[in-house]
Amino acid sequence: MKSNIFKAHLALLGANVIYGANYLIAKGVMPNKIGPSAFVFLRIVGAGILFWIIKSFIKEKVAKQDIFRLVLCGLFGVATNQLLFFHGLNLTSPIDASIIITAIPVLVLIFGAIILKEKVTINKIIGIAVGGIGAIVLIAYGNSSGGTSSFLGNLFIFINACSYALYLVIVKPMMAKYNSLTVISWVFLFGFVFMFPFGIGDITTTNFEAFTLNTYLVIAFVIIGTTFLAYLFNIYALNYVSPSVNGSYVYLQPAVSFIMVSIYAYGLGHTEYAQDINLVKILSCLLVVSGVYLISKTPKKS
Q1: Burial of 198 by CB count in 10 Å (0-12 exposed, 13-18 middle, 19+ buried)?
Q2: Is 241 left (phi over 0), alpha (psi -120 to 50) or beta?
């Protein structure tokens, strides 16, 4: 059992290192090689095919009354989430994006209280306030901070976080009712339907002849690593650890992003990223992480 728990933590570590690295890796080919919408098109199609290949071995039907909920999951959890994330990342700093995304547990708490009527404690209210201040400061600061930050990009990332948080609340009953691979396969299918009108134009005008080996490797990393493998790692881990432990690993993403951007800026000479690391962003990161910690902290039993 201890061996399985250790493997679960390794899986979570792997998933969140992949997520943390994705901010800089994906940004490296946008928009010079491929536009954000075209990138999302390839990501959803590629990962969706992989999920449905595995789903073909799981003989499980979805009840008609649950289809509409899965449609909403596809809208918020795949189409809106991924389109806004890649368009936001295209406009802003990888560090800004990785910090803002850690607000997801805060947003999950808010939507959970509204939709699922989950109890909100004093610690959680304080956490919402602290984390919210950090995210707002970072979004507002993105307009004047220099480097690769931008207000619009940060706003897109924040709306993306809201969309994904809403998806997590909506999908929760489905995960309890069906095999998780059944759910995610249908979610990606409906997500593709919503994404198609936005991505088809970009994908048909993409100049694939200009792709280098590096471009194909980045796209493969995003499809296989960030989307397919990272999700499977999270599924495996949830068999042995609680969702709160799973969620706590999101704290790693800004750290990985900070390290990669530092290497890129100071080790590899990409000076455009040098201004992305400063005191305001570090303090914003600490506020968001502190807020999430307060929300996830389990109250002591009397």
Answers
A1: middle
A2: beta
At residue 280, the 3 state secondary structure works out as: helix
Chain centroid to CA 255: 15
Q: What's CA 38's distance to the chain center, in Å?
A: 18
C-alpha span between 74 and 52 (Å, rounded): 15
Judge whether 186 and 62 are in contact, CB under 8 Å.
Answer: yes
User: Distance (Å, rounded) from C-alpha 98 to C-alpha 157?
Assistant: 9
The gap from C-alpha 70 to its chain's centroid, in whole angstroms, comes to: 19
What mean pLDDT comes out for the span 94-101? 80
Cα gap 73→14, rounded to integer Å:
25
Question: What residue ranges in 215-293 does DSSP mark as E strands?
Answer: none
Q: CA of 146: how far to CAs of 74, 142, 194, in Å?
A: 35, 8, 34
Q: Which residue has the tokens 């009527």?
A: 117
Other CB atoms within a 10 A radius of the CB of residue 200 amount to 13
Residue indicated by tokens 């939507």: 111
% of residues, the chain, pLDDT over 90:
32
pTM: 0.77
Cα 18 to its chain centre, rounded Å, is 11
- Return d(Cα 253, Cα 29) in angstroms, integer: 20
Residue 192 CA to residue 171 CA, distance in Å, equals 17
Q: Where are the domains of the chain?
A: 2-92+148-267
Task: Tell me the C-alpha distance between 270 and 115, whole Å.
Answer: 45
Tokens of 117: 């009527």
Q: Which tokens hold the place of 222?
A: 């995003």
Per-residue model confidence as pLDDT tens digits over 237-255: 766 765 555 666 776 677 6
What's the pLDDT score for residue 302?
45
> Rounded to an integer, what distance in angstroms lies between the CA atom of residue 296 and that of residue 93?
27
In this structure, are residues 173 and 68 in contact, taking their beta carbons and an 8 Å threshold? no
Place of tokens 């309890």: 176
